[in-house]
Design a protein that fits this description.
259 residues, alpha/beta, TIM Barrel, eight-stranded parallel barrel, 10 helices, 8 strands
């Protein structure tokens, strides 16, 4: 029955739906919900390393695949921390991804000109270029996730780095702004969007407002955003960034959006 549900969903939509997995057990649970893939969280780097063998065993036994979400950057204005901590962790993570057949890695690097110093944004653009070069040899696409940026904030990085792509986070697009930045990002970068993050909130002006509610539980205009995505012919992947137990409650709502 699970495979029939998955086959039916694939016939109705060209957008593949997945969920966040922090453990191999999460990945199995997502498969049993009928999802197509798991996006592995690496924010707790040491736990991730301990789970790699388990993640490998999962995809050896079921028809499933993985994407990956990189770690948080820490202080977004601290170049020293980026050099000594963030970049080495991302490089170490890249080395593990071929064993998991991962083809897409989403990275967190805040580029909002209202809050991040220009020299730090320049540095982040340079390190993204270095990471993209490393990833190319492993056939891994690097996506930058929007946090609170509008399309203009990301323009210098996308101009400088033709190999950089976008993970459109529709929940983050609602934060630190009077209205969603999602429509501007979709219009500006229709060919750069390779992945979507789905979660809801009520807007707000602090990290505490990034509630990661199930879609439909907040104020994010999912219908309008998905209409815009359909308008550009988006056919990539979308991750429900929720706890596994929260995903089942919103699958009907999300499937309506996708189809």
């Amino acid at each position: 029955m699970r495979s029939n549900n998955r086959e039916t969903a694939n016939k109705r939509s060209e957008i593949a739906l997945g969920g966040t997995a922090r453990t191999p057990k999460d990945a199995v649970a997502l498969y049993e919900l009928g999802l197509n893939f798991a996006e592995i969280s690496t924010n707790n780097f040491h736990k991730y390393l301990n789970y790699i063998d388990g993640f490998v065993k999962v995809i050896e036994s079921i028809n499933f695949y993985y994407l990956c979400h990189g770690p948080n950057e820490g202080n977004p204005n601290d170049i020293g921390s980026l050099k000594s901590d963030y970049v080495p962790r991302v490089i170490d993570i890249l080395e593990t991804l071929p064993s998991l057949n991962v083809s897409l890695l989403t990275l967190h690097l805040w580029m909002d000109r209202r809050f991040v110093n220009p020299d730090v944004i320049d540095y982040k653009t340079r390190i993204l270029g270095e990471i993209i070069d490393r990833a190319a040899g492993k056939r891994i696409t690097i996506c930058l996730e929007n946090l609170s940026e509008n399309w203009e904030d990301l323009a210098p990085a996308f101009k400088e780095l033709p190999g950089l792509h976008l993970t459109l986070d529709v929940g983050h697009a609602q934060l630190l702004r009077s209205e969603t930045s999602a429509h501007g990002l979709i219009a500006a970068y229709p060919d750069r969007i390779k992945h979507i993050h789905l979660h809801d909130n009520f807007g707000g002006n602090s990290p505490e407002n990034d509630l990661h509610l199930a879609p439909g539980k907040g104020i994010v205009d999912f219908k309008g955003i998905f209409d815009a995505l359909k308008g550009i012919g988006y056919t990539g992947t979308a991750t429900l960034e929720l706890k596994v137990e929260e995903i089942k409650s919103c699958l009907s709502f999300v499937n309506e959006l996708l189809h």
